[in-house]
Amino acid sequence: MLARLRDWARAIRRDVHALWLAARDPRTPWAARLLAIGIAAYALSPIDLIPDFIPVLGYLDDAILLPLLILLAIRLIPPALMAEHRASAAAAAARPVSRGGAAFILLLWVLAAAWLIRVLWPWVAG
């Protein structure tokens, strides 16, 4: 059962990457593009709308809502186009991971949070 769960997680990760690729493809219908961009941005973001430390609801978006939205976006994309992007995503997954790129994205999030705190602090402390 653990192997099936691991395979499912890999398929979800591949599909999110494929949706990101499809969102940038001009052959993808606009509704699917908008949904795919939103899903990929949310799935790849280290920040959750509902934090995971909130009991039950914290994992609801990750475990139920996100996979359902992924399925919806996949159905909106023509099957041949989705197969093409899945193949590209699978090939990309076989390449080495860039830890430097991940560190850069994390740094951007920290800087954005610091800037937001700096801008809003006078108003909040008010």
Strand content of the residues, in percent? under 5%
How large, in whole angstroms, is the Cα Rg? 17 Å
Anisotropy-based shape: globular
How many distinct helices? 5
SS class: mainly alpha
Q: Please provide the ordered H/E string of secondary-structure elements.
A: HHHHH
Instruction: State the low-pLDDT regions, or none.
Output: none
Number of DSSP E strands: 0
**Main β sheet profile:** none
N-to-C terminal Cα separation, in Å?
A: 54 Å
- How much helical structure, as a percent, in the residues? over 70%
Please tell me the total number of domains. Answer: 2
Summed over residues and divided by their number, the pLDDT gives a mean of: 85
Membrane topology: Multi-pass membrane protein
InterPro entries: DUF1232
Protein name: DUF1232 domain-containing protein
Main location: membrane
List the helices and strands and how they pair.
Layout: H1 2-23, H2 30-44, H3 57-76, H4 79-93, H5 99-125
Helix pairs in contact: 1-2, 1-3, 1-4, 2-3
Describe the structure.
The chain is mainly alpha-helical. The protein has 2 domains: 2-95, no CATH class; 99-126. It has 5 helices and no strands. The chain has helices at 2-23, 30-44, 57-76, 79-93, 99-125. Helix 1 (2-23) crosses helix 2 (30-44), helix 1 crosses helix 3 (57-76) and helix 1 packs across helix 4 (79-93). The N and C termini lie far apart (54 Å). The relative contact order is 0.12. The model has no long low-confidence stretch (mean pLDDT 85). Its main location: membrane. It is a multi-pass membrane protein. It is found in: Endomembrane system.
